[in-house]
């Protein structure tokens, strides 16, 4: 046991741990992490090399989320992010960041890691026990870089691990972490809180959130076939792609009645979404039962009616009222309820801290600003165009991750 | 058609056309009755956009997912008329179904079950061996599915004997005394499939004691999930029991039923088929769009029953998958649909946010 100024580092536990990256590890290096400056050239070079390796791997092509990640890590994209990171003061990483990745979005672990690296930290990432091909592809590329020894400095600044429940490893990594980043449901957060952090360390939690979408009916009505198809494809990626179970996936769909034919706009949109979902989505029998059961709950608790759809792949419900606890009604796998308004302000009363993302289409920037700031909302951290709800950015859930994972020493 | 008249029909006598006519009439009436009497049911029907004054044929009537009885109190009679509340079994932590029965529905369940079972065991009551522990029915106030099953079938016993003691051990002495007393008589055996296998068959095999149950008729239910994991097929089950106690495989009858539709059980015939009686029906639906699946095609099992008046459980979508094997033409001679139950639908493998993950900590 090592005693530092303000914390007690626990012994490494004996319980099993699968090391996905690197090939072998000496945890003592992680116990005394050396910070770096944010967006260091070394880190950018490493990620750019990682990006090319992933792009070159033919199996990546089947996974749009892997390709998106590789794009995110290209030098050009990182350099732009660096210049956007308009901190005129010098910063340094915090030290060691312990990431707990979620089980719903496979590549999330990689984005979390990249945030930690670019903020100037060493990192330990625990990935979900559920295995994903996407994770394997990215790890494989990382190992290749490691073996080539071209970027050995950055390559030695992180580890990716997997371990089972009630493992002492949560305690150990927490005891040496400067920041703990937890992605997951409320129960995951609760479970991690049982592992103490050193007094000076802190935790950033991305807990369970609820998301919505809003559409201007007129623009949907006016959209060309190609435009509506593009819109529907984007919406598919926002929802079905992760079983409508990512925190950023909309459940409530708000329609702005900016044309008398808003009903036609709705039908036009859903028809297009349905046709994609029907083709691409892996519908499971239990979803039919789950959707019908959720529908029963809603019919019992609020005024609503089912909209006719050809099948159970897409379930649509029209709401005649918008109860304040609407976020408690959600069902993964393509279940949506719609509410029509003359003005977005009509939904302000439901927006609580729980609300994360609002996808939008056909609504002006100023209207969106009025809505979020004019109503002084406590929730909704991201308002993004349809199709971009799951695109990662360092601004997440109201945090600037680079800033959150680094510190700013003052020299006067 | 009044329920009293319906219950006078011989259970396996109705061929498709007559049965459809009867069910169309009865289930439409019941749908209107529950619509008028159960607020939550009315809201559901209205939200579905169904016009209550122009209802379709019975196989197009709206169905309730069975799970709603776990989350909501659904009754079509005033509270003071409820004489019994049935609850489903369910492992700890899970919510249980709550089914509210008034005097009439409860009596009709008993009568209906009698009609169905009599067609398998005859009109007279038989000495009955319950292959379970008496501990299960000790608390009469809350009927568990297992207790309710035993009590429900107990009416067919002239004398009853629990084969297992309170610790679920086979009571060999009690069993052999009971069989001595009823030497030469047909014996009704009742129990839950897995309990029978675990605590009766395995124990008998281990003991080497071979009771003579060659005149036994066994009725068992509860599902095959656990036996499937032990790779025991229905055929193995019958052959193994025959081996340890001489019971004829053709006299071993599985049944499918649920607490949400007590009374209208689906009994297995001598040919190994589960049969819908005249008092109920199964409709296999395609999960993609709830359209009706053809013979031999797997789908979700919808069950309809003419009995439930005190709660809106006359048309239910179960969480089981099954296959329709035929209608009106089973070699056993019984009319009506016959089918196979494939078991509970798989829980979705969903990329969850993220409490599925938490469960792994």
Draw up the topology in text.
The complex is a heterodimer of chains A (412) and B (361).
Chain A: E1 2-3, E2 8-9, E3 18-21, H1 28-31, H2 41-56, H3 64-72, H4 75-84, E4 92-93, E5 96-100, H5 108-118, E6 122-126, H6 133-148, H7 152-155, E7 158-162, H8 168-176, E8 179-183, H9 186-193, E9 202-206, E10 210-216, H10 217-222, H11 225-238, E11 250-256, H12 262-280, H13 285-301, E12 304-307, E13 315-319, E14 335-341, E15 355-361, H14 365-374, E16 382-385, E17 395-396, E18 399-400, H15 401-404, E19 406-407
Parallel strand pairs in A: 5-6, 5-8, 6-7, 8-9, 10-11, 10-15, 11-14, 13-14, 15-16
Antiparallel strand pairs in A: 1-2, 3-7, 4-19, 12-13, 17-18
Helix pairs in contact in A: 2-3, 2-6, 11-12
Chain B: H1 3-6, H2 16-37, H3 39-47, E1 64-65, H4 68-71, E2 82-87, E3 98-102, H5 103-121, E4 126-133, H6 145-154, E5 157-164, H7 172-181, E6 187-192, H8 193-207, E7 216-221, H9 225-229, H10 234-245, E8 252-256, E9 266-268, E10 274-275, E11 280-285, E12 298-305, E13 315-327, E14 337-344, H11 355-358
Parallel strand pairs in B: 1-13, 4-5, 4-6, 6-7, 7-8
Antiparallel strand pairs in B: 2-3, 8-9, 9-10, 10-14, 11-12, 12-13, 13-14
């Amino acid at each position: 046991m090592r005693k530092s100024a303000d914390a007690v580092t626990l012994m490494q536990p004996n319980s099993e741990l699968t090391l996905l990256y690197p090939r072998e590890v000496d945890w003592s290096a992680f116990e005394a992490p050396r910070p770096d400056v944010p967006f260091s050239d070394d880190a950018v070079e490493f990620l750019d090399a990682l990006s090319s390796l992933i792009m070159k791997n033919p199996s990546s092509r089947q996974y749009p989320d892997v390709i998106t990640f590789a794009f995110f890590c290209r030098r050009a994209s990182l350099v732009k992010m660096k210049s956007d990171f308009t901190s005129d003061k010098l910063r340094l990483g915090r030290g060691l960041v312990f990431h707990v990745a979620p089980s719903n979005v496979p590549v999330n672990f990689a984005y979390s890691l990249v945030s930690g690296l670019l903020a100037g930290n060493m990192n330990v990432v625990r990935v979900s026990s559920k295995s994903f091909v996407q994770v394997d592809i990215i790890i494989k590329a990382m190992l290749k870089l490691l073996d080539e020894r071209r970027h050995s400095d950055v390559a030695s600044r992180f580890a990716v691990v997997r371990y089972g429940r009630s493992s002492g490893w949560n305690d150990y990594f927490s005891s040496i972490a400067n920041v703990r980043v937890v992605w997951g449901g409320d129960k995951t957060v609760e479970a991690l809180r049982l592992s103490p952090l050193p007094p000076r360390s802190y935790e950033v939690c991305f807990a369970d959130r609820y998301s919505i979408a809003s559409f201007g009916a007129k623009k949907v009505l006016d959209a060309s076939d190609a435009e509506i198809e593009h819109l529907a494809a984007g919406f598919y990626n926002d929802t079905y792609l992760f079983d409508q179970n990512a925190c950023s996936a909309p459940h409530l769909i708000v329609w702005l009645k900016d044309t008398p034919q808003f009903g036609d706009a709705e039908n036009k949109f859903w028809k297009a979404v349905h046709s994609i979902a029907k083709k691409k989505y892996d519908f499971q029998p239990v979803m039919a039962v789950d959707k019908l059961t959720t529908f029963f709950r809603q019919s019992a608790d609020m005024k609503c009616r089912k909209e006719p759809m050809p099948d159970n792949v897409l379930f649509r419900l029209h709401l005649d009222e918008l109860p304040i606890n609407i976020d408690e009604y959600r069902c993964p796998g393509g279940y949506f309820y719609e509410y029509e308004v003359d003005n977005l302000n009509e939904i302000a009363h439901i927006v609580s801290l729980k609300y994360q993302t609002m996808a939008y289409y056909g609504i002006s920037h100023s209207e969106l600003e009025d809505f979020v700031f004019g109503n002084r909302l406590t929730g909704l951290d991201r308002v993004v165009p349809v199709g971009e709800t799951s695109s990662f950015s360092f601004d997440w859930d109201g945090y600037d991750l680079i800033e959150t994972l680094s510190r700013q020493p003052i020299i006067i | 058609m009044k329920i009293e008249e319906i219950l006078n029909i011989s259970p396996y006598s109705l061929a498709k056309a007559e049965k459809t006519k009867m069910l169309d009439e009865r289930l439409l009436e019941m749908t209107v009755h529950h619509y008028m009497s159960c607020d939550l049911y009315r809201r559901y029907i209205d939200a579905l956009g169904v016009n209550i004054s122009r209802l379709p044929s019975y196989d197009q009537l709206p169905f309730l997912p069975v799970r709603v009885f776990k989350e909501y109190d659904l009754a079509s009679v005033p509270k003071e008329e409820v004489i019994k509340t049935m609850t489903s079994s369910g492992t700890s932590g899970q919510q249980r179904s709550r089914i509210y029965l008034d005097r009439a529905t409860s009596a009709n369940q008993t009568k209906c079950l009698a009609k169905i079972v009599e067609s398998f065991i005859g009109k007279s009551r038989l000495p009955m061996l319950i292959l379970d522990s008496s501990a299960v029915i000790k608390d009469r106030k809350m009927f568990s599915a297992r207790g309710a099953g035993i009590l429900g079938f107990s009416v067919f016993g002239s004398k009853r004997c629990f084969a297992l003691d309170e610790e679920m051990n086979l009571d060999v002495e009690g069993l052999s005394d009971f069989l001595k007393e009823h030497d030469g008589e047909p014996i009704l055996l009742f129990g839950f499939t897995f309990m029978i296998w675990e605590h009766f068959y395995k124990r008998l095999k281990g003991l080497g004691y071979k009771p003579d149950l060659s005149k036994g008729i066994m009725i068992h239910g509860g599902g095959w999930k656990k036996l499937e994991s032990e790779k025991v097929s229905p055929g193995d089950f019958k052959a193994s029991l025959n081996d340890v106690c001489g019971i004829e495989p053709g006299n071993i009858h599985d049944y499918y039923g649920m607490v949400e539709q007590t009374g209208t059980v689906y009994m297995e015939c001598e040919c190994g088929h589960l049969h819908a009686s005249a008092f109920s029906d199964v409709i296999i639906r395609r999960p993609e769009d709830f359209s009706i699946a053809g013979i031999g095609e797997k789908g979700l099992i919808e069950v309809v029953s003419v009995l439930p008046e005190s709660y809106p459980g006359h048309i239910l979508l179960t969480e089981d998958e099954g296959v329709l094997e035929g209608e009106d033409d089973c070699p056993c001679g019984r009319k009506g649909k016959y089918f196979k139950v494939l078991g509970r639908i798989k829980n979705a493998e969903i990329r969850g946010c993220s409490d599925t993950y938490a469960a792994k900590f």
